Sequence to fold (119 residues):
Amino acid sequence: MPGSRKLGRASDHRKSMLRGMVTYLLETGRIETTVTRAKEVRSMAEKMITTAKDTSLHSKRKVLAYVTKEDVVKKLFDEIAPKYKDVNGGYCRIIKTGPRRGDAAEMCIIELTDPAAKE
Fold:
């Protein structure tokens, strides 16, 4: 991934962390994290939703190779992707919440947007 952030981790740890965060975002609809992590998660989550809009077996296998829970993949194809069928991108939004108390890292909430609100 050109231009991807290293997030202070080895590549295998970073990929694993992002897979887990994307899975959790798709499962719950929102996460609180740092801004830099949220930007990486948004990038991958939007790619997963775009892939899930095509319901072919190939796209299901592609998503299943990245998302770590089968029930989340089912939810993505059955509930999340159909909501965004008429929307091209912009499925997530990042809302900054201020600095973290311990180390003053910029915190934010990343959540899936409501496609009906865009109209």
Observations:
- The chain has a mean pLDDT of 92.
- The CA atoms of residues 92 and 112 lie 4 Å apart.
- The radius of gyration is 15 Å.
- Residues 11-28 form the longest helix (18 residues).
